[in-house]
Amino acid sequence: MTQQLSELETMRPRRRQRRVTSLTIGLTLVAILILMALLAPLLSPYDPNLQTISNRLLPPSALHWFGTDGFGRDLLSRVIYGARPTLLLVSLILILTIPVGLLIGITAGYVGGWTERVLMRITDIFLSLPNLVIALALVSIMGPGLMNGALALALTSWPPFARQARAETLALRRSDYLAAARMQGITGFRLMFGHILPLCMPTAVVRAALSLGGIILSAAGLGFLGMGVQPPTAEWGSMVAEGSKVIFDQWWVAAAPGAAILFASLAFNLTGDGLRDRLDTRHAK
User: Which of 21, 63, 80 minimizes the C-alpha distance to 234?
Assistant: First the structure.
């Protein structure tokens, strides 16, 4: 009896350690990022667009924790406000890509035939296009801006969702679950979006979380090249571009927004990895 109690006591710390997973860490970092964007006016010590030439390119100090940029603007305030356009752009891309990808993938997998071949060939064409290059071409045509950048990145971000939804639909098409639904008279769109779609959503959520890190880097790339959010709005990619001009002498100008991009990418990558372990039993530990 005492031996069993001792074994239970030794197992308790292990269970407590397992609770700290990549999902909890990732969700904590994402929550910090979202709160930073929502509470930017309260957290920012200065106006992010206030230019003070006498304070230009100051190193990190007690007054300016991240230093100042070439216009004397506080980098900490601009990094905090820079989370807003980044999260808004990511949200717009997900709203545009996930429904389109799931609609095309489920339709192709369920209908089959020439419909599947046409939809999958279109998907392969878009999948072969380099994301950032096509986004730059489209933004140069439509003009720089937040909405145009989201549309450009969304155009080449939906194919992975479509291919994954098609593969899952093919596996489900001849399953007993759908056969039972057909016996009850459920067919067509009711079967596709009432029964197949809920089964495809968990993996779509995992893929979306894993792709957010790359989307953030692509959005920062647009801003770095001057095709994203236009100044004086604080945006991490454009801030890195400004800091690259003085990176050897005033390294903090580029390091502060670069660390913010790393933080956001790491947060979503950890969240995606944790969701994959939680929702997909094949990766469960």
Answer: 80
Secondary structure in 3-state letters for 158-199: CHHHHHHHHHHHHHHHCCHHHHHHHHCCCCHHHHHHHHHHHH
CA 244, CA 221: separation in Å to the nearest integer? 13
**CA dist list (Å): 88 to 29, 156, 162, 216:** 17, 18, 23, 11
- What's the residue count for the chain? 285
CA distance 183 to 120: 29
Look at residues 70, 63, 74, 67 and name the one whose alpha carbon lies nearest to residue 40: 74
Neighbours of 94 (CB within 10 A): 20
Q: What is the pLDDT of residues 207-262, one digit of tens each?
A: 888 888 888 888 888 888 877 777 788 889 888 988 888 888 889 889 999 999 99
Alpha helix (H) ranges present in the chain? Answer: 2-19, 22-38, 40-43, 75-111, 113-127, 131-142, 146-155, 159-173, 176-183, 188-191, 197-224, 236-244, 252-279
What are the tens digits of pLDDT across the range 133-149? Answer: 888 888 888 877 788 88
- Half-sphere exposure (Cβ direction) of 206: Cα atoms closer than 13 Å: 18
Which single residue is written with the structure tokens 């957010």?
212
- Cβ contact 268:216 at 8 Å: yes
- Output phi, psi for 68, to 5 deg: -130, 165
pLDDT of 15 over the 50 cut: no
Residue 266: exposed, middle, or buried by beta-carbon count in 10 A (0-12, 13-18, 19+)? middle
Closest to 215 in 3D by CA, of 153, 158, 151: 153
Give the global pTM. Answer: 0.80
